[in-house]
């Protein structure tokens, strides 16, 4: 039998989030990885989704290509911001569903590198403890 211990934060309601402490990440189920991730062209290059040579292509053209590949779900032309795609369950496409760890951690976008210092509620995170098996 599995049970869920710890906080019952609602990722959609930052008022339920807990004050961030670095040690929380070790036991979290990566709830923050279900938030929309906004990235810029330099993030896409670092993540190797766009070749540095192609970074000079028209942003709309890049956006169309990346949407077709399933890498992004939205492009804000005015702000030149791309939103990474998410799976049907809402998780980032780069989150491993089994380990709940980022598969591009060393190349992760600035949004992820700076979380939770920036975001919906700076200094807080939507911590949910990992599911643990009971005997």
Question: In short, what is this structure?
Answer:
The chain has helices at residues 24-27, 41-46, 59-68, 110-113; strands at 2-4, 18-19, 38-39, 72-76, 81-84, 124-125, 131-133. With 135 residues, the protein is of the alpha+beta class.
Report on the structure:
Helix content is 18%, strand content 16%. It has 4 helices and 7 strands. The chain folds into 2 domains: 1-35 and 89-135, no CATH class; 37-85, Orthogonal Bundle (Arc Repressor Mutant, subunit A), CATH 1.10.10. The chain is elongated. The strands form 3 sheets. The chain has a 3-stranded antiparallel β-sheet with strand order 3-5-4. The protein has a two-stranded antiparallel sheet with strand order 1-7. The chain has 135 residues and is an alpha+beta fold.
Count of DSSP-assigned helices: 4
Query: What overall form do the CA principal axes indicate?
Result: elongated
The count of strands amounts to 7
- In angstroms, what separates the terminal alpha carbons? 7 Å
Residue-averaged pLDDT? 89
Biggest sheet overview: 3 strands, antiparallel
Percent of residues in β-strands: 15-25%
What letter string, H or E per element, gives the SSE order? EEHEHHEEHEE
Radius of gyration: 16 Å
What's the arrangement of strands in the largest beta sheet?
3-5-4
Our count of domains comes out at 2
